[in-house]
């Protein structure tokens, strides 16, 4: 998981992500776009967007969550959400924040506490996923968040998770028979195309770079390969030198099938045996070294091979089903006001 994505996950609790309306539901919204005249009418921003049992949700926190939500919906694509979808997005974000506040208040009411040092331990683990403290600080800055605010959110998320485990998850039971029925009804979903799991080290070459820049990048990677052949660890060198976003995971790209990577990279990766390192591969991004960790053939897995995955899927579906009435009950017993126009 990329560092920025990790922070996004911290910013919205797992349960909120589960119960959020699907992205496709937002995309299918057929509401008419605002007229140009309406867009040009300035309206003052409220100080707060909602109040939940006397606890206010500040507009500045809403803005931060809205930006995160937009990035999730856009999934890294350039541009902004269409105007026709923005009102729906704002409503969803406010609803998410209200739901999180309700869950947190209930967790406090029930007396859930975190063990001493839990937040610092989680923060240390999070920081370890970044290649440097500078990258971590830059990410916080992009998220318009301080470390203290992050620590508060880590604590809230963990406390809410304890609540959900007790009141919802502990009451869910998925049997092996349920999983077998699901497998028999969805066999096509589990067909596994040929795939590899690989690490890589990327030295970038910008578009239009001159021959000298290309030569410098190529020579840098040649030196790295010499160190690998001399016995140095590929992952450690990837974390230290790779200029791709996977460097924080020691260059690990996970499993991928054909058609997922650019052609020169794919061709090289699928020719390698496990633990074999490629020659230098040139793509539109620059120069790569590739190490294949695993190479699996095209196959139809057995039930036993996919049972844990099915159990997790059914469990998550059941959590989502049970969370809706659970949250509705909290809402019915709460005093909620919203101030967003």
User: What general form does the structure show?
Assistant: globular
- Judged by helices, strands and strand pairing, the structural class is alpha+beta
The total number of structural domains is 2
Quaternary state reads single chain
Helices and strands, in order, run as HHHHEEHHHHHHEHHEHEEHE
- Which regions are unreliable across 5 or more consecutive residues at pLDDT < 50? 8-42
Approximately what portion of the residues adopt beta-strand conformation? 5-15%
Q: Can you give the mean pLDDT? A: 84
Number of helices: 14
Helix content: 40-55%
**Total beta-strand segments:** 7
Could you name the key traits of this structure?
341 residues, alpha+beta, Triger factor/SurA peptide-binding fold, Chitinase A, domain 3, four-stranded antiparallel β-sheet, 14 helices, 54% helix
Map the helices and strands.
Blueprint: H1 3-11, H2 14-19, H3 23-27, H4 36-39, E1 48-52, E2 55-58, H5 59-74, H6 83-109, H7 118-127, H8 133-142, H9 147-167, H10 176-185, E3 195-204, H11 211-229, H12 234-241, E4 252-257, H13 263-271, E5 281-283, E6 286-296, H14 303-332, E7 336-338
Antiparallel strand pairs: 1-2, 1-7, 3-4, 3-6, 5-6
Walkthrough of the structure:
It is a single chain. By secondary structure, this protein is α+β, with helices and mostly antiparallel strands. It has two domains: 190 residues, Porin chaperone SurA, peptide-binding domain (Triger factor/SurA peptide-binding fold, Orthogonal Bundle); 105 residues, Roll (Chitinase A, domain 3). 54% of the residues lie in helices and 12% in strands. A four-stranded antiparallel beta sheet has the order 4-3-6-5, sandwiched between helices. The protein has a three-stranded antiparallel beta sheet with strand order 2-1-7.
């Amino acid at each position: 998981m990329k560092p920025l994505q990790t922070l996004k996950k911290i910013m919205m609790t797992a349960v909120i992500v589960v119960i959020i309306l699907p992205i496709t539901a937002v995309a299918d919204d057929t509401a008419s776009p605002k007229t140009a005249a309406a867009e040009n009418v300035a309206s003052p921003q409220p100080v707060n967007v909602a109040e939940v049992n006397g606890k206010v949700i500040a507009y500045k926190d809403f803005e931060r969550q809205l930006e995160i939500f937009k990035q999730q919906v856009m999934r890294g694509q350039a541009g902004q959400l269409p105007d026709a979808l923005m009102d729906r997005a704002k409503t969803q974000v406010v609803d998410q924040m209200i739901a999180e506040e309700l869950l947190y208040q209930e967790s406090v009411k029930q007396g859930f506490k975190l063990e001493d040092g839990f937040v610092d331990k989680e923060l240390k683990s999070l920081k370890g996923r970044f290649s440097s403290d500078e990258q971590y600080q830059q990410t916080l800055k992009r998220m318009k968040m301080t470390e203290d605010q992050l620590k508060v959110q880590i604590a809230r998320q963990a406390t809410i998770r304890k609540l959900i485990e007790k009141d919802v998850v502990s009451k869910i039971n998925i049997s092996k028979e349920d999983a077998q029925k699901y497998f028999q009804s969805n066999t096509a979903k589990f067909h596994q195309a040929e795939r590899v799991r690989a690490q890589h080290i990327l030295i970038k070459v910008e578009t239009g770079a001159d021959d000298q820049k290309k030569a410098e990048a190529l020579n840098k990677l040649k030196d790295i390969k010499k160190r690998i052949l001399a016995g140095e660890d590929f992952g450690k060198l990837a974390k230290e030198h790779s200029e791709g976003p996977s460097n924080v995971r020691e260059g690990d790209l996970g499993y991928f099938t054909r058609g997922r990577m650019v052609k020169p990279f794919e061709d090289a990766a699928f020719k390698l045996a496990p633990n074999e390192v490629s020659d230098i591969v040139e793509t539109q991004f620059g120069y790569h070294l590739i190490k294949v960790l695993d190479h699996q053939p095209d196959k139809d897995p057995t039930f036993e091979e996919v049972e844990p995955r099915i159990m997790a899927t059914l469990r998550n579906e059941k959590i989502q089903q049970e969370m809706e009435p659970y949250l509705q009950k909290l809402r019915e017993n709460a005093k909620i006001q919203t101030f967003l126009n």
